Amino acid sequence: MDTRQQNILEFIIKEYQMTGEPVASQVLVEKYHFDLSPATIRSEMLKLDEDGLLMQPHTSAGRVPTTKAYRLFVNKLLGKKELHLKDEERIRKDLRKFDDNDIFSRQMAQILADFSHNLGFSGFLGEESDFHEAGFSSLLKDIELCQPQSVADILRGFDYFGKKINNLFSRLDEEMEIFIGEENPIEDFKKCSLVISNYEKKDRKGFIGILGPKRMNYVRNIFLVQEAKKMIEDI
């Protein structure tokens, strides 16, 4: 994939994250001011199709990113500073409102949900009764996940969700993991993405995370989970 194709793919991902609508070549020309004709962009999009990075949901529609495309995008993000400084400061300021008390797990789930506009969750490993999630309605409102079958899958996925997350963490090697679409080890969440991290607090091991559509804002959500982990461990 050359530089031009990388730029086209990145703008398609960002546009689809914002709108949830398939992206047409004309949108890239008019909105992102590519110095290319729509025909040239269509040709490049076809190559990205052939490489498994884009797909066309309907014959007359534009393209949407695949799991493979999101994985390339996320891998490029890791280790880089992508969030605007003003957004970073606002997130850190609100995280400082977090109280160190007996209901902090519920508070953290709500904070993650409020900032991500996805589903936030928090709990302690091995303690399924101390598991909290927030933002479920926001998750089901997303255009990618509001179809009846997707809703049914997600609802089924929340049966024993705390237990599933506990089992998942027993198999993880990294402090933070990002699962995209079909990579998701929880079968009923194959249409979702999951950003999850562990932490240690007062000799207890816990976890926090965000569950959202594949078009979630990875820049914001990765930063949120990283900062929340630091905040919990520093209190």
Automatic annotation (TrEMBL):
Q: Does the keyword Transcription regulation apply?
A: yes
Is the Acetylation keyword given for this protein? Answer: no
Gene3D superfamilies recorded = 3.30.450.40, Winged helix-like DNA-binding domain superfamily/Winged helix DNA-binding domain
The GO biological-process annotations, alphabetized, read as: negative regulation of DNA-templated transcription
Pfam families, alphabetized: HrcA
InterPro entries noted in UniProt: GAF-like_dom_sf (IPR029016), HrcA (IPR002571), HrcA_C (IPR021153), WH-like_DNA-bd_sf (IPR036388), WH_DNA-bd_sf (IPR036390)
Q: Kindly state which keywords UniProt assigns to this record, in alphabetical order.
A: Repressor, Stress response, Transcription, Transcription regulation
Transmembrane portions of the chain: none
Annotated protein name in UniProt: Heat-inducible transcription repressor HrcA C-terminal domain-containing protein
One GO MF term, please? DNA binding
Q: Which residues form the Heat-inducible transcription repressor HrcA C-terminal domain?
A: 74-221
Q: Which PANTHER family match?
A: HEAT-INDUCIBLE TRANSCRIPTION REPRESSOR HRCA (PTHR34824:SF1)
Record organism: Candidatus Portnoybacteria bacterium CG11_big_fil_rev_8_21_14_0_20_40_15
